[in-house]
């Protein structure tokens, strides 16, 4: 490639390179030639050399050595060189480069140039890479150009003002008066820039927001003119008159009408007109309608208008474009809590979106479906969600299962519905794969759900016991089943259940099932912990296999899993030190407390206060216990309170307790029934 090659020829040669190494060789030779051209000074080829360097930069190769050449070309009096210089500055310079400060004076001079095209180059460059220092220096020039006679310059000056406000927010007040006057322009480009500028001003200053609320009628008239205007080839996009300007105006109206009744009332009719007259068959129309919906939902709009907005989103759900379906469900998700009934009308369409091929659409449909679950539709919605659970992608399975659990926890009040929901939850735990498909809170949430329905304990423990002996691979199901067996194993032994056909289960059957879980290689440490704790709980609910339970627990006292080992050691300590406190079978039969102690047992002794329990009388149906409290200090004890907790098995018995308080000096003593 010769040194005099032009840009087009260089592009052709680079594209014809067969390997990356060959391309790098071409780039290196050309960059060497470009450096040589830069060193030769003003030979008429500098702009062509910089243009080639910019293409090299676009390919990802270093081009920083062309920064100073950009500065030189910007200062050139020739327009052709200025154009390439400003283009190079926008591509090779940024506000962090020291070289960017060198073009500040050139930009200031060009902003006052007699040619609007030179002014345009300076405006575009400042709006693209102007630093805070440059913006402060040139802001008065930009404010002056907002009042220029050429619409071409006004349009670019407004966008440059937006950049300045973003870089230096304290300069916003400088542009506020001019921004209002720009709304009277007829040129769509100027109007578009003016609306963007006003939006920026209103978002940054509440006082400016109040000031521009007075311009709502003017914005409404501009918008009405766009909606009702005849066909204009210059601004028409797919049958919609300048949808870009319409969208910008709607966004500004949304800001001005937020939490303001007066501004909202002024735009209600316009929004209704746009919502009913805009064609949604093309993307441009859908964009305008979407912004209209967002505006309706964000201002203090009328209830009928909000229903209309929800219906528009419902129509979007039927659109073939999945991007439109996605943004529709995203918007419905935001308003489902405030306009629940209106969104419920589109429940069927939302549920159908669960079958979409796109995972992101499925995720939005799932979130919205879970939000629509209520006490009225929980049966039908649970059915649909269970179907989705069986076919959903792995990445959505955990979210689906947890959502179903949370819904079941909210709507389990009725007896029949509670049974139905427990069956659903059991089905979920049985069918989903083990591992990460169930969130951490799922098991405790289901346990809480079971605990709150005391009338279903028998049904639940029978149901889960059957699932446990059938399959122990599903860890979450096994954990819940073990907990239920430990809590309600006595109900399982009775073999009486009205809601389900009972199964005769022996104590050995229950312990065999728990031992299988403990010994299975599929059981996680957490699952073994559930099983070991359930086994220990059963020692108070069965009569003939306490020694077997003691043997099972003692085995795990030397387990390599520290959590399991600690539990086993603590349970063994209960067997050795506190076995006298264990309830006997007679207690379970007669629902009374049997306390097997020496006549008097010390239960508390601290800070001079001593508490002793004395068993005075015991029959088959009653036990009399006396609590003796003694004060060995020299001071009186005040606010002494005694509370007695009665076990569940004694809920139908009469439990009497007496207390005696005596001071060591025998100044007083009293006995009080409790």
Descriptive key words:
single chain, 674 residues, alpha+beta, five-stranded mixed β-sheet, two-stranded antiparallel sheet, 32 helices, 6% strand, elongated, disordered C terminus, protein transport, membrane, ARM-type_fold, ARM-like, AP-1 complex subunit gamma
Share of helix, binned = 55-70%
- Per DSSP, the total helix count is 32
Secondary structure tally: strands: 7
Shape: elongated
Estimated structural class: alpha+beta
Distance separating the two termini: 108 Å
What integer is the average pLDDT?
Answer: 82
- Rg computed from alpha carbons, rounded to a whole number of angstroms: 40 Å
| Proportion of residues in β-strands | 5-15%
Instruction: Give the biggest sheet.
Output: 5 strands, mixed
Low-confidence stretches: 584-597, 651-674
**Sheet with the most strands: spatial strand order:** 3-4-5-6-7
Structure report:
It is a peripheral membrane protein. It holds the Pfam family Alpha_adaptinC2. Residues 596-674 form the GAE domain. One of its GO terms (biological process) is vesicle-mediated transport. It is found in: Cytoplasmic vesicle membrane; Endomembrane system; Golgi apparatus. This protein is an alpha+beta fold and 674 residues long. It is built from 32 helices and 7 strands. The strands form 2 sheets. The chain has a 5-stranded mixed beta sheet with strand order 3-4-5-6-7, with no helix packed on it. It has a two-stranded antiparallel sheet with strand order 1-2. A hairpin with a 4-residue loop joins β4 and β5. α16 (283-298) runs antiparallel to α17 (303-316) and α22 runs antiparallel to α23 (394-410). The longest helix is centred in the first third of the chain and has 20 residues, at 20-39. The radius of gyration is 40 Å and the shape is elongated.
